[in-house]
Amino acid sequence: MLVEEEIVGNVYINLMNYIFKKCDSISLTKRHDQHEEITSRYINIMSSISGYSIDDFIDKYSDKFLNEIYEIFKDNEEIFDTEYMAKYENGHPDYFKRWISITQSVEHIYHNNVVEKWKIKNESNIDKIKMVIHKYDFGDICRYDTYYLKMNTETEKELLSKKSLYDWCFPNSIEDICFFKDGYCFLETVAH
Q1: Apex CA 173: angle with CA 151 and CA 184, to 5°?
Q2: For labeling, which of 18, 66, 84, 150 is most exposed (least CB within 10 Å)?
Q3: Residues 6+ apart with CB under 8 A from 63
Q4: Does some domain include residue 50?
Q5: Worst-scoring range by mean pLDDT, 104-108, 113-117, 139-143, 175-179?
Q6: Longest alpha-carbon distance in the chain
Q7: Is the pTM of this model over 0.85?
Q8: Do 39 and 104 contact (CB within 8 A), yes or no?
């Protein structure tokens, strides 16, 4: 069955209550930044110029803050140097690509913090971690960690702390929740 509408509110609660009866474990996934080195470079430049620390980027994170950071750095020649211009912009500024470069760098810093807090909170409940590295034909490498948790009262509380299946989504959460019964997938989501 393919569900293309968001499952929210009472429908989500009812689905979770049904899953609590049927399933014995869940998994959640953390996708790593494919461009971690570039992200670090951008964050270091933005931090040194703006005076914001990594904690500031995390604490101030919001759509408004992302817009402010973009406005400050959209024409920064240290970030958008000749190598960047040649590789991504064909020599002419592309402000949509610059928006993505700047905002995703901040989003990844924020997301990493969210996931670390989640891991600490759920440390005793994590049953297994599966780490995967996938190389695409076009050369990009995707690395992700999947965390498996037993279904219990703690897991149920965690599931009910969200309002929708799509609340398990980057950058505000670990993502792509799956539910299992006896090792077989009962329900899988792809929310990213």
Answers
A1: 35
A2: 18
A3: none
A4: yes
A5: 139-143
A6: 58
A7: yes
A8: yes
**Which domain covers residue 168, as residue numbers?**
9-188
The Cα 13–Cα 165 span in angstroms is 10
Number of domains in the chain: 1
Whether 3 shows a pLDDT value over 90: the answer reads no
Does any domain span residue 1? no
For residues 69-87, one letter each, b for 16 or more C-beta atoms within 10 angstroms of the residue's C-beta and e for the rest, the string is: bbeebeeeeebbeeebeee
Evaluate whether residue 4 is within a structural domain. Answer: no
Q: What is the mean pLDDT of the chain?
A: 91
Residue 136 has a pLDDT of 75
Residue 110: CB atoms within 10 A of its CB come to 22
Identify the CA nearest to 15 among candidates 151, 159, 157, 155.
Answer: 159
